[in-house]
Design a protein that fits this description.
alpha/beta, 3 domains, 10-stranded mixed beta sheet, two-stranded antiparallel sheet, 24% strand, elongated
């Protein structure tokens, strides 16, 4: 079956008449009619019914249209992919980040892209991991940096980028972890904590599960639903919080808050790069993946393979 002829007949179906299709395609109407006749002769069935208002597809025409469009779209995507392999990375890429990974990664990734990948335009989407994975599966997000992707999630593929450690955070004035890179979980559990108010929130479940496994009882002083409230409550030296390192990174860098990695047991998550399993990564997406891996491996990188603090190992 000739692909150009097939596209022409589908265009006639889309526009509803030979005259409108001829005008849009810039092809003489007799030539379009000839293409239609050739395809009908090849398939042995009429594909269009002519009437005073134009044309409508027959049952065979509808079956051809419904079956051909996905195939043609797939061929177009494949052609674009092959052309892309020979070109400089370019195009728009939608990158999903969680609030904590966005705090650590968005700005350096944007700087690296601007410097090394001038043809690539980044667009960021911020959401929790489960929502980001759904958006990747739906095609709304191209790449997502999120946590602990389920192994049985259909429609997406993921790879582990690094480990992300949970840390105990408090105001600098509290003095409990000043100068320390680590704090035993038992010591952190003895401090009244600011915790997420969402009982089914994945991070809180992980913290409470790790505490139970270690035989520890957490002291939950306040339950909140925003990082702004958490920051405000942590101005009280009597309180602490267990969070991803990037959640309050600006306050940690400014010295308003200090952080130390939880140990005995260490509590951490896999940081994953997630993309659709329905198509290969294009050149721009592959280039961004490489930039992300470089950021993770950089000696000045914060909060990933090494714990935060002066004695990070």
């Amino acid at each position: 079956m000739d692909l150009r002829r097939l596209r022409t007949v589908l265009a006639i179906m889309e526009h509803g008449s030979l005259s409108r299709a001829a005008e849009r395609l810039g092809i003489a109407q007799p030539a379009l009619g000839a293409q239609l006749r050739h395809l009908e002769e090849e398939l042995g069935v009429p594909l269009l019914l002519r009437h005073s208002r134009g044309v409508t597809p027959t049952e065979a025409g509808r079956a051809l249209r419904d079956g051909a469009w996905p195939l043609l779209e797939g061929l177009d995507a494949l052609a674009a992919r092959i052309r892309d392999l020979g070109n400089t990375p370019c195009g728009r890429v939608v990158v999903g980040v969680t609030p904590s990974t966005g705090n650590l990664l968005a700005a350096p990734l944007l700087r690296a892209t601007t410097q090394d990948l001038p043809g690539v335009a980044l667009s960021f989407v911020e959401a929790l991991s489960t929502a980001l994975i759904d958006q990747v599966a739906e095609g709304a997000v191209d790449l997502a940096v999120c946590y602990d992707m389920p192994a049985d999630r259909r429609g997406v593929r993921g790879e582990t980028l690094a480990r992300d450690w949970l840390v105990f955070v408090e105001t600098h004035e509290a003095g409990r972890i000043a100068g320390r890179a680590e704090i035993p979980f038992a010591e952190a559990a003895a401090v009244p904590l600011v915790m997420s108010a969402l009982g089914n929130e994945v991070l809180r479940q992980m913290i409470e599960g790790s505490a139970r496994a270690a035989g520890l009882d957490l002291i939950v002083a306040h339950e909140v639903q925003s990082m702004g409230l958490t920051r405000a409550l942590l101005s009280d030296p009597g309180l602490g919080a267990i969070l991803p390192y990037g959640a309050l990174i600006d306050d940690i860098r400014a010295g308003r808050l200090v952080a130390a990695r939880l140990v005995r047991p260490v509590v951490g998550r896999r940081l994953c790069l997630v993309h659709s399993d329905r198509r290969p990564l294009n050149r721009a997406e592959l280039a961004l993946r490489g930039a992300l891996l470089q950021l993770m491996a950089a000696p000045e990188g914060e909060g990933w393979e090494a714990p935060p603090g002066q004695d990070a190992i």
